[in-house]
Design a protein that fits this description.
heterodimer, A: about 290 residues, Alpha-Beta Plaits, 2 domains, nine-stranded mixed β-sheet, 13 strands, about 35% helix, about 25% strand, B: alpha/beta, two-stranded antiparallel ribbon, 11 helices
Chain lengths: ~290, ~280
């Protein structure tokens, strides 16, 4: 089974648009995962027929019983996350700051603190024209996005153990959710654009993917916005021995298609045409893998 | 006064707004610009200067094998799975450690000593007499984004005005950045993606009782979906940045459009004035 993640470092370079198009065009059976759980957008393009939604429980949260708490403040001193505040003569937990480490329960002399399970997100499962889609959403104020990504990937494996291909729409950045996304995958399709910011972010992402020994392919989106920086990106790719599998031109049709909620490859235009070529090339690369 | 520039969705123009705003405001008063997008910080591109580098570290346990009796207390206690106690040794996985301090408290034989490990660095400089820059940069491969953001915010001293460039998303790094700020400027774009991610960010900000205003970027005049949402949630739209090739080119090259072009200087000055009015609660 091959797992491919579409990632970028910088946000807004076109990961989701490319993922949706890959989902529609790559041949064979596949499962799709939207691992950008902070801001999941793949479902907006693939319009899933929802089959199930279940609660995701992240780390437990501390709760202080105000009837027992004497307001001594030992928990506030011990909490390195500043999750305890004093209201009147009792202490109380600020749930969005609590990481569930349990240290406060150790130091409370009255035994007034206990841990409570909490729902921090949802796991959605549905079918789309591109295949089954698993995506997550976070309850406002919740963290644990890396943990949720891990759960989404587990869920995909459980529901479709024999699927030959998994396509993951990755989160921006290079932190916890991204590492959770690329752990154990074989191929990363990196979408970048010709800007100094994207170029800078790309180098950090490549360093990370390399340490995970992941095969990388580069796609330059909106390449014609700056031919000079695109040239620089091509040189970087060559120096780093990363194949550039396509360049997609700037095309207002992409925004128009996104507004209609359809993947751009289902429309006509130069970006759509270029994206077809990118995916044909990716199909070959996956076959050879 | 702390004002954060955020978006939920990535690539909507947070850094463009934050850098230009910092530049125009610094023409009138002393300000500090903080880059809290520590996984992919970009402000150094727009304000190149000689940075002073300061390490950011966290404290994690170091196991003193000669004192350890392998009782298992620390492994049982750690909720993050960072410590596994075997019969004859203890395995420690630093990437999973949240530095909560708990394992030190439960060890009955004082077999854990504190050690510092690097998780990133701060880049500090003064691009001009009135502008200071604090950039956080997470070490590649590390997951402790919030520790670096906390280090950035801890560096803010008594500056009258601080602009924070937020990371994308709405989870831990975003919350660490926006917690207890005076105003949040949400930069969005008029697409279903922009709207969806704006609404997720607004839900978090409401929970945190933070006042928000909106800037629509890459506007082509077709902003109805964002306008309707903002009017329903009583979010003032302070600026519409049109899709402009000149702006895009400057931004891509790492230049500040407000420095290059007097028209854009005026537009961002106006945005700055409005933001200051909102953040002081005058409106």
């Amino acid at each position: 089974m091959i797992q491919v993640a579409v990632v970028s470092g910088k946000g807004g370079t076109g990961k989701t648009v490319l993922t949706a198009s890959c989902g529609c065009l790559l041949p064979g059976e596949k499962v799709l995962i939207d691992a950008d759980v902070d801001a999941a957008n793949l479902a907006l393009l693939l319009d899933p027929h929802s089959l199930s939604t279940e609660a995701f429980r992240g780390m437990d949260v501390a709760v202080i019983n105000p009837d027992i708490c004497t307001g001594c403040g030992k928990c506030a001193q011990a909490c390195v996350f500043d999750a305890v505040i004093r209201v009147g003569d009792v202490c109380t937990i600020v749930p969005y700051r609590c990481e569930g480490c349990v240290t406060c329960t150790l130091v409370c002399p009255e035994g007034a603190i206990h841990m409570k399970s909490r729902i921090t997100g949802m796991i959605h499962y549905g079918t789309t024209r591109a295949g089954p889609l698993i995506y997550g959403s976070l309850i406002p104020g919740s963290g644990n996005s890396g943990l949720l990504v891990h759960r989404l990937r587990q869920e995909a494996g459980k529901r479709h153990p024999d699927s030959p291909l998994t396509i993951i729409d990755g989160p921006p950045g290079i932190g916890c959710p991204l590492i959770s996304t690329i752990t154990g995958i074989q191929i990363a399709v990196i979408v970048t654009e010709p800007s100094k910011s994207a170029q800078h972010d790309l180098l950090r992402l490549i360093t990370l993917c390399r340490s995970f020994k992941i095969r990388m392919f580069l796609v330059v989106n909106r390449f014609d916005i700056s031919s000079q920086i695109t040239d620089e990106l091509m040189v970087t790719a060559e120096e780093m021995n990363i194949s550039v599998i396509g360049k997609i031109p700037y095309d207002p049709e992409v925004v128009a298609a996104t507004r209609k909620g359809i993947p751009v490859i289902e429309t006509k235009g130069k970006a759509s045409e270029a994206m077809h070529k990118v995916i044909t090339r990716l199909t070959e690369e996956i076959k050879m893998f | 006064m702390q004002i954060v520039i955020a978006s939920g969705k990535g690539g909507t123009g947070k850094t463009t707004v934050a850098s230009n705003l910092a530049f125009v405001l610094s023409q009138k008063q002393s300000i500090t610009l903080c880059d809290c997008d520590v996984e992919e910080p970009n402000q150094e591109i727009f304000f190149p200067c000689d940075f002073k580098v300061q390490r950011v570290h966290v404290e994690v346990p170091l196991i003193l094998e000669e004192q350890c009796v392998h009782c298992g207390s620390c492994g049982e206690f750690c909720r993050f799975g960072a410590l596994t106690v075997l019969k004859d040794r203890v395995l420690f996985f630093p990437q999973l450690c949240h530095s909560c301090d708990g394992c030190f408290r439960v060890c009955p034989t004082d077999a854990l000593k504190k050690q510092q490990i690097d998780v990133g660095e701060l880049l500090l400089c003064n691009p001009s007499d009135t502008l200071s820059l604090i950039i956080g940069r997470l070490k590649e491969g590390d997951t402790r984004t919030t520790a670096v953001i906390r280090a950035v915010r801890d560096m803010i001293h008594t500056v009258p005005l601080v602009i924070l460039d937020s990371p994308p998303g709405t989870a831990c790094p975003f919350i660490e950045t926006v917690d207890a700020v005076d105003l949040c400027v949400l930069v969005t774009e008029s697409t279903p993606f922009g709207l969806h991610d704006l609404s997720v960010a607004v839900d978090v900000l409401s929970l945190l009782c933070i006042r928000s205003v909106v800037v629509i970027n890459r506007s082509d005049g077709n902003d109805k979906i964002i306008e309707e949402y903002c009017s329903k949630h009583q979010l003032p739209i302070l600026m519409r940045i049109p899709f402009d090739f000149k702006l895009l080119c400057a931004q891509n090259k790492g230049l500040l459009i407000s420095q290059e072009d007097s028209d854009w200087f005026e537009r961002f000055s106006l945005l700055g004035d409005q933001i200051l009015t909102y953040s002081t609660g005058a409106l």
